[in-house]
Amino acid sequence: MAEKFGFDVKLMHLGEKFIDIVRNPRYGYGKNMNPCIDCRILMLQEARKFMELSGADFIVTGEVLGQRPKSQFKNGLNIVERDSGLKGWLVRPLSAKLLPQTIPEKNGLLDREQLETISGRSRSRQMELAEEYGLEDYPSPAAGCLLTDASYSRRLKDLFEHNERVDFNDVNLLRAGRHFRLSDHTKVIVGRNKEDNGKLLKYAKAEHTVLEALGTGSPITLYIDNRGADYIEKAAAITARYSDLKNEASVEVTCRYKDSDKILRVSPAKLDEISELIIR
Prior knowledge:
This protein has a 6-stranded antiparallel sheet. A two-stranded parallel ribbon has the order 1-2. The chain folds into 2 domains: 2-146, no CATH class; 149-277, no CATH class. The chain has 11 helices and 8 strands. The chain has helices spanning 2-5, 15-23, 36-54, 74-83, 103-106, 124-132, 150-162, 168-173, 194-203, 232-241, 271-274, and strands at 59-60, 90-91, 178-183, 186-190, 209-212, 221-225, 251-257, 260-266. Helices cover 35% and strands 14% of the residues. By secondary structure, the protein is an alpha+beta fold. A hairpin with a 2-residue loop joins strand 7 (251-257) and strand 8 (260-266).
């Protein structure tokens, strides 16, 4: 889009600030782990800093009055504008005529008559505008946020409950594989396919143990434990369960921890034994 319409894109990573607001949102969650109001405030606070650095006159968003149940009703819009420090400087052109006049409008930078009166959940007017302005390749109207996904949210909640410190590697791992909680301090992630295996290796940390049944089709398994290897045999059995040798009486599973390898011979875990361990 930037290339087509000739504008610059500035990417700003929210880092640990984003993890902090997801863990402890001032304004609570939506249906799952989505802290929509706090998220908007954080993004706009960062945008305000860039606005001041770059000498921009105001900030524009695509928010629509009444479109999102938590963050885009009038009260939510007002909270976001106030807490982001952008009161009067935040322009929402799609619903502008339904909202108070902004400073750029009062100063003559914007013609209020050219702004819109869109409200509610329908996207028909937005689609008309997209066609009018030649916007063809845009996402389908959906939330698109992983934090609104029930399964992902359960994994994230489990991560927060069992870890005082969380970083982006931990968060990225939530998107791959099957997740098993073996104890309060032990978690196992098992790849579902080649793509998952690649992600697990990419985001594995030095303190994680990597398990694999060599010489056969096997998942990559990450063994994550901050106290030791108490459940490593269980992790090996789960790895064997999802390998191509799952029907064999015993399977050799290699466990790699830092620069050392060891081999465990285990019986593949039975599904009914591990089903209650899955973080669904």
